[in-house]
Amino acid sequence: MLRLDSGVQYIKGVGPRRGELLNSRGIRTVQDLLLHIPKSYQDRANFVPMNALHVGQDAAVRARIYRSRAIQTRTRGRIQDAILTDGTSFIHAKWFHGGYLQKKAFLPGQEIVLFGRVEFDRHESTFVLFNPEFEMIEDAGEAASLDIGRYVPIYEEVAGITSRQFRRIVWAALADLAKDIEDPLPEEIRSANEFPDLATCLGRIHFPEPPDDLGRLNDRDSPYHRRFIFEEFFLLELVFALRRIEGRGVMGVRFETSDGIRDQVKKILPFHPTAAQKRVLKEIVDDLKAPYPMNRLLQGDVGSGKTIVAFEAIVLAVENGYQAVLMAPTEILAEQHYINAKRILSSLGYRMCVVRSGIKKAEKLELIRQIAAGEQQVVIGTHALIEQDMEFRKLGLVIVDEQHRFGVVQRLRLMSKGENPNTLVMTATPIPRTLAMTLYGDLDLSVIDQMPPGRTPIKTVHMMEADTERAHRMIASEVAAGRQCYVVYPLIEESEKIDLRSATEGFNKLSEVFKTGRVALLHGRLKSEEKESIMRSFAAGGIDILVSTTVIEVGVDVANATLMLIEHAERFGLAQLHQLRGRVGRGSGSSSCILMTPARLNDVARQRIRAMVSTNDGFRLAEVDLQIRGPGEMAGTRQSGMPEFRVANLMMDSKLLALAQKEAERWAVREDEREKLIRALSSRYGGAGPAGLVTVG
């Protein structure tokens, strides 16, 4: 008798060799196998009379062999050709390379059932089924057939195991599965939503029977599909709900507010905050005043004003006597945050530093000492902040910028530098709400959905490489008007393998084209001092045209930069293009972004370019990106710790996701169900992935 956690090799027809093949594809247990659901279903239960067939139809036919012959050909080997009749008409069935059928007795009068696509054979001037699936009625008996005379599941080929073979393995697993398997969904949820129980679902999603609706099965809208989609979402959202309960069960760093602190916050505001910024700041302050640690995701489009909100939180931390740390994914972004911090917080007299991997050893050791002694109140840096020798005296606030560039483990490692510090995760890459609910479901979500006043929308145009001179004229016009431009390339140096113009090559060419202009080159391989010097010069107006790689993707804020030319824009992702474009349009003047591509583009690149030209809304672009790339690739599931869904689809199943989140929050506090739900999580995730981070219960 098999259990859901039994090894797949113990299923009849699998064995050690096939078991290893299935294991290599992530199918290790009976549960893994049974959650590998069919990709589609075919109606092989309702036989179509031959006189009712039409070309292009997928049809099941029951007939008798009228005549059969083997034809030897030079190009297609042996062809088995059978003429069939059901009393209403005649058709042919042909199997190319049919040598394997020699042992089959295709005898006149033999009853046979077939399934295949109906085509017209111009040589025979009749309908034909090419390479149909078939069974002789006397072979196994019609009732025992898994391939004919029923609704038949069709599977993706796995590790060389065909759909037909996989069907038999699944059938054997279901036949030997214990009857007392535990259902992870509470009966109350199943009843309220009309979800069938687990045993029924496992049987019918693989081998449906009339009156199951074949159309709903193929649309993933059957009761069995809906139940498994909900279950996947429910168990994941349950992990997050339990994590939130766990987080609120520990004492965090609690901040107080006062009129004096509010006055300090007002001092740093360079402009009147938007309503969205005020709303988000209130959500953050409410968290910081709570007895448990804040765990919040701050989302906002490029230029929406997330940084100033983060600095307001830093003021609250420092005024309460704690240190604040901000971790950025690149040295340029860390430097930019440090420059902004010195500018915005200068009136408050805070002691601030930046920690990066490129600084000299003696300088780094002195910074480590100062941070450990509490002499540095605001610490900004890159991955160097999570190194083992980095310690804080009194860490109260952790800010992680561009969280999608880090993994969950890196965030937790930085948080471990303090005793349950408050954590604010920021991203300027808009994430569709459905993806945020699964990728960051353990975090409370704040969204700045309003842009500061005075921002002029960026005009985005698509040009072909033949339009290069026109693009250069636009750059010349901006420079002549006293404004600045970016030219972005996907590579630093020319590659023999990829035919892309490199940043160095582009820099040399643009230096010739704009001999009177001030052209500079910026890329990630430069030393930190060089990068910082170039960025300072560009920000001060000392450089007209900055040729760069994607190191300027985030954090660079120069209001006088009004034009960006992105070379080989087809090589960039949609989120990256949007981030790059956000480097212009940061002042009150009109700004433009040119997307330069070859004339020929594949469909995906064309969709991206079209989306960029049509909208400046990062959240709309994120939805398009989700449709193009899918949630797994977009989120980087391996890095984030988010599981890959077997049945659920974030784009198609958002209503069930919302329901699952609501139910998970309700059931996570039910102590009478806690043990059973934890068992379900352990069974599904095996102690790895999201469940591995849950210790409640």
Number of helices: 24
CATH homologous superfamily (4th level) name of the largest domain: P-loop containing nucleotide triphosphate hydrolases
As laid out across the biggest beta sheet, the strand order is 11-12-10-13-14-9-15
The CATH C-level class name of the largest domain:
Alpha Beta
CA-atom Rg in angstroms: 32 Å
Structural description of this entry:
With about 700 residues, the chain is of the alpha/beta class. A seven-stranded parallel beta sheet has the order 11-12-10-13-14-9-15, with helices on both faces. It has a six-stranded parallel beta sheet with strand order 16-21-20-17-19-18, sandwiched between helices. Strands 2-3-4-6-5 form a five-stranded mixed beta barrel. Helix 10 runs parallel beside helix 11 and helix 11 crosses helix 12. Helix 14 links the parallel strand 13 and strand 14. The chain is built from 24 helices and 21 strands. It starts with 14 loop residues before the first helix and ends in a 12-residue tail after the last helix. The C terminus is likely disordered. The longest helix is centred in the middle third of the chain and has 25 residues.
